[in-house]
């Protein structure tokens, strides 16, 4: 009687693996979608659980399991929903994606790959532009929730430090 149970457990286990790998494969297709639009797959993390692309407006909306952080050149924050107008080589009118610059989180407005052979990707934050190496974005990353504590803690530390100095300065 041991054998039937063994197979039941084995098939149950295989079923479980299939079951959990389906959302992962579904999440993978947004990375293919990015590639099909001349953008690197790693622009969005593996944490994308679903997405939809409005074929009329070109608006791509990616839903993440949770807001999270990934490190490319600097830290990038992905909100639960990342939305942008997808075109070939570009994501414009972005919402939900910020890049850390000198301890400030700047919302990224546009991401462009004008010429893939140049090997660079442009992050436009309105107040600043940044050219990054395309190779940083080759593979989707597992982003972490922990970065939040680190980033916010650091910002708090610095702003409190500056605040204290300012109070000290004004108090004199
Ligand atoms: C998205 O971009 C296309 C092409 O640049 C433009 O025609 C369209 O109006 C844009 N849609 C939105 C919602 O911004
Ligand atoms: C993330 O998105 C939510 C809902 O749209 C918004 O309320 C929140 O301010 C966003 N967080 C950041 C850090 O941009």
From TrEMBL:
InterPro entries in alphabetical order: At5g01610-like, DUF538
Pfam family, one: DUF538
Signal peptide feature range: none
Protein name per its UniProtKB record: DUF538 family protein
UniProt source species: Dendrobium nobile
């Amino acid at each position: 009687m041991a054998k039937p149970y063994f197979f039941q457990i084995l098939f149950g286990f295989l079923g479980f693996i299939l079951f959990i790998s389906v959302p992962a494969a579904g999440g993978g297709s947004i990375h293919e979608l990015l590639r099909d639009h001349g953008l690197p797959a790693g622009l969005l993390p593996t944490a994308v659980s679903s997405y939809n692309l409005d074929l009329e407006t070109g608006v791509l909306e990616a839903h993440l399991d949770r807001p999270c952080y990934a490190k490319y050149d600097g830290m990038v924050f992905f909100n639960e929903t990342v939305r942008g107008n997808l075109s070939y080589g570009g994501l414009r009118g972005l919402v939900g994606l910020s890049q850390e610059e000198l301890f400030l989180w700047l919302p990224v407005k546009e991401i462009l790959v004008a010429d893939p052979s140049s090997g660079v990707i442009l992050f436009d934050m309105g107040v600043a532009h940044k050219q990054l190496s395309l190779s940083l974005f080759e593979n989707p990353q597992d982003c972490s929730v922990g970065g939040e504590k680190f980033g916010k803690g650091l910002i708090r530390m610095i702003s409190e430090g500056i605040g204290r100095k300012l109070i000290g300065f004004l108090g004199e």
